[in-house]
Every structure is written in C-alpha cells, then in structure tokens.
Amino acid sequence: MNIVVGISGGIAAYKSPHLVRLLRDAGHSVQCVATTHALEFVTRTTLETVSGRRLYCDLFDPANDHSTEHISLKDWCDAVIVAPATANIIGKMANGIADDALSTLLLAVGGKPIFVCPAMNSEMWRNTAVQRNIETLRRQGVVMIGPDDGHLACGTNGVGRMSQPEAIVAAFNAATAEAKFLAGKWVLVTAGPTYERIDPVRFIGNYSSGKMGVALAEALAEAGATVELVAGPMQARCHAERVNVHNVESAQEMYDAATQLFPQCDAAILAAAVADYRPDHCADTKIKRQDKDEMTLRLVRNPDILATLGSHKRDDQTLIGFALETNDEERHAKDKLERKNLDYIVLNSLRDKGAGFGVDTNKVTILRRDGEIHSLPLMDKHEVARQIVAYCFPTLQP
Ligand code: CTP
Fold first, then answer.
1. First and final C-alpha spacing in the chain
2. pLDDT computed for residue 278 by the predictor
C-alpha cells in the first residue's frame, strides 16, 4: 500500500522513524508529511532516509513538484497514519482547519482510511474539547489507535502515551486486512416498523422485525462504512462496531432523524416499514369502550421519508429504497424508483416463500436506475445484505 505517515509536533515524534521503517519492512511505500513543529523533535534527514522519499512539510516550498502537492499525494495514498497526533492536529482535523501541509492534506484526503495515534499529556487528553474532537473524528470513520497508559515525557504516569510502533502496525494491518472498500464512507440505514400512537396504550404498527435493516447495517460496517442506523421499535439489535443507533418510534420521528443525518451521508438505504398514515391525534388518556358497535379512527398522511431524501439527494449521494409488492412487482418497483428519484430499489415479493417479514431469509431483486435488473436467490438475510452492498456500491470500490 501507499501510506502517508503524518507527524505532528510532540515528543513521541522520535518514534515515527521506527514506525516508517516497520511499514517499509512490511512492503509498504511511505511518504512522510511533517508539521514544522515536528521537526523540533525529529530531523528532516532522518525521515527522508527511512522513507526513501523527500519530506513534505511546507505547502509553498519551491522544491515541491507543484503547489498542489497535497492533491497529488491524496490521490497517491491508500491510507494515512498520523503518528504522533497532538491535540492541535486532532483539533484541526475535527474542525476542518487547513493551515499547513499536513492539515491541508488531511482535509483533502476524504474517502481514504485515516488512522490517528494520539500522544499528549493526560490532562490534555481528558480535556472536554479534545474528547469532543476525538468523538467527531470517530463518527467520521477515523480509526483511533491508542493512546496507551504509561510513563509520559512530562514525568507523570497516565493515559496519553503514543502506542508503540509495533502495536500501531498491528492495528493498521488488522483494520486493512479485509476488503474494506467502504472505509471512510458514511451510510444512513432505516430499519424496523414504526408505531403510530392512538392513545397511551395503543398504536398502529406492522410486522416488520428489523432484521433486514440490521443485516444491512452490519454488512456496511463490515465493509468499513460508518453507519447511522435509525431504528423503529424492534427486537433485532445491532452490536457491530461503527454503527450508531438512533431509536425512534413514529414515522415523524424517523423522518426527523433521517432528514437531519442524510446531508452528511454518502448513501442511504431505507429498509424500514414506515406507516403511511397515523391517527390525526393521540388521545391523552386511554380511550374507553363506547356503547356502539363501530368506532372510526381518522388517519392523516405521514411524510414520505424516501421521497424527501430523493428530492434533496446530491449527485455524490446514492439512495436505495425497498419495495414490498404483491402483484405486478417489477412495474410497481420501477415506478417507485423513478417517482422517488432513487439509484436502486430492492424488490421483495410477498409471493416468494421465505421472503419478507419476520423470517431469517429473503429473496430480492435489485432494480438499477439505468434499467439493469439483478435477481438474487433465496438466502440468509445477512448474505442478502452483503450482496446488496456489493451490487449497489460498485463505484465506491477500488
Ligand atoms: N418509505 C419511507 N417513508 C414512508 C413510506 C415508505 O421512507 N412514509 C420507504 C420505505 O422505507 C421503503 C420505500 O419507501 O424503502 C417503499 O415503501 P412502500 O410502503 O412500499 O412504498 P409506498 O411509496 O408507500 O408505496 P405503496 O404503499 O403505494 O406501495
């Protein structure tokens, strides 16, 4: 792999040449990018010697190939490891600040896996602003390696020590071993039913188990994506790493969460079985049986989440919907795909045995916007999910 090792200005920078050496021994090509403060702790000569490449440090160095070296480097590299990462570079990364070669490259490098190895004093590490920045980066799919607990350069003991280069390489290898073709991507998934309240003890719901949506969230996370899972009330639980679960109850709550999250996402897969209508109001107290044989509930329309996302979708976003049909399946699904401005629609036919609500298997046909139709056999929902992810994200694969 082509790896950029970013070095910021902390005492742990003395370990960076060793990290570069280990990565090169493992067969990787390494380009060092350092801040000017890093060069107070480790020399340009050392970094250039161990990497075998000219150091990139100054955006405007006349020795650069051209003034957009950060752009050519972001195209060249397959991954970035920032080691050591000071509180300062972490703060810049989390807030989109680009005022030197390293921070500018990190801002440009979106879409490639980024590993951050923090190194700082314990008090700095615990600081609320630093923890907020770490959380922001984690949510963007940045992988944190360390910091470790141990002896610190300031003479104290505590959390904040940069992980040993051997441990950094091991964590990096483990994270990149599989085909993580969605690393750095952010995907919204909706799953499960919605409950539309009638009164404090009753609701209108449906039989959706949420299993398909959870399987999709897990398949996406397996492929390296960070997932925002907006889940209706359901039994299925998702324990995968990099899946942030947002529990909602009604279609309106699901709409609010999904429309808020979508602008930051690269893609969305809406697998929830959303109630199209809800009672026009929820009674404050339990509705008592009345002395008549009939009662009427007045329903009003819920917002269509998929259609709303379709109408706001940017060119760089992929939108995938589901369609559950009982007749004229492909025609109805194709119509939905066009009406809601989708890139793909996953069709479930209730006529297929073993497909649909409650069961562990599913049989789907995926329709692509350009008319291609991809039919899958009856499979376990997890395998169906993996196949949907592989078919719908070809452009994101290397
Ligand atoms: N969907 C949604 N919001 C709604 C209704 C549906 O996001 N209020 C999404 C579902 O998650 C699914 C897709 O739309 O991805 C298709 O849902 P479906 O109920 O089959 O489509 P409708 O447009 O409601 O069409 P119809 O009920 O007429 O078949």
1. 13
2. 98
- In three-state secondary structure terms, 187 is strand
The ligand 1 atom nearest the CA atom of 332: 29
Closest CA to 114 of 263, 223, 6, 31: 6
Residues 6+ positions from 128 with CB-CB distance below 8 Å? none
Residue 201 and residue 127 share a domain: no
**Which tens digit of pLDDT belongs to each residue from 208-230?**
999 999 999 989 998 889 999 99
Amino acid at 202: R
Query: Does the Cβ of 367 fall within 6 Å of ligand 1?
Result: no
pTM above 0.85, yes or no: no
Same domain as 167, residue 196: no
C-alpha 336 – ligand 1 centre gap (Å): 8
Domain holding 373, by residue range, is 186-396
Around 182, how many Cα atoms within 13 Å sit in the side-chain half-sphere?
26
Please, are residues 319 and 313 in contact by the beta-carbon 8 Å criterion?
yes
The verdict on whether omega for the bond into residue 118 sits within 30 degrees of 0, i.e. cis, is: no
Q: Is 188 in the pocket of ligand 1 (CB under 6 A)?
A: no
Tokens of 54: 């000219």
Catalytic residues: 154
Half-sphere exposure of 221 (CA within 13 A, CB side): 20
* Contact status, residue 198 vs residue 54, Cβ threshold 8 Å: no
Check: CB of residue 168 under 8 Å from CB of residue 246. Answer: no
Same domain, 24 and 142: yes
DSSP 24-77: HHTT-EEEEEE-TGGGGTS-HHHHHHHHSS--B--TT-TTSSSTTHHHHHHHH-
Number of domains in the chain: 2
d(CA 10, CA 35): 10
Do 346 and 388 meet the contact criterion of CB atoms below 8 Å apart? yes
Nearest to 211 by CA among 378, 364, 357: 357
Are 188 and 268 contacting, i.e. CB atoms less than 8 angstroms apart?
yes
pLDDT-based confidence at 398, cuts 50/70/90?
very low
Domain shared by 110 and 249, yes or no: no
**Distance from the alpha carbon of residue 182 to the mean position of ligand 1, in angstroms:** 26
Is the distance from CB of 168 to CB of 18 less than 8 angstroms?
no
